[in-house]
Amino acid sequence: MPKRLLKEAGIGVVPSVTVSKQQWKDNPKIISKGALDKLGLPVFVKPVCTGSSVGVKKVKKKELLAKAMNFAFQFDTRVMIEKAVECREIECAVLGNENPAASVLGEIIPHHEFYSYEAKYLDPNGAALKIPAQIKASLADKNQKDCG
Q: Of the residues 83, 116, 134, which one is the last residue of a structural domain?
């Protein structure tokens, strides 16, 4: 749902395919081929309704997609296959309900291949944080407006 809301608000989102557990059970080869034809490699496989990178795997070889899907289905009945993009990870917290306000932007610099559950919670040196993120002020302002 957050991806749909962001898209409706005109904010770019990474291309993805969402698959139910039953769809996967019925047609794993067709789903794998369709997703990889659409998204290419690498991809992230992630349970739809979990947070903190629980159940997330990065897949670089098509032979490993089924294993990542089966792992993610341990945590949810719907799984998203999402195109992996090389980028900086900038975070923005939104505080408040009726009058939401965006925080200062921070940059997450993972010391693992990506900001995985292990990097977040198990490895004390899993990532570094730069607060504030070193980006142009105009871009920071735009992101804070989009977040808030």
A: 83
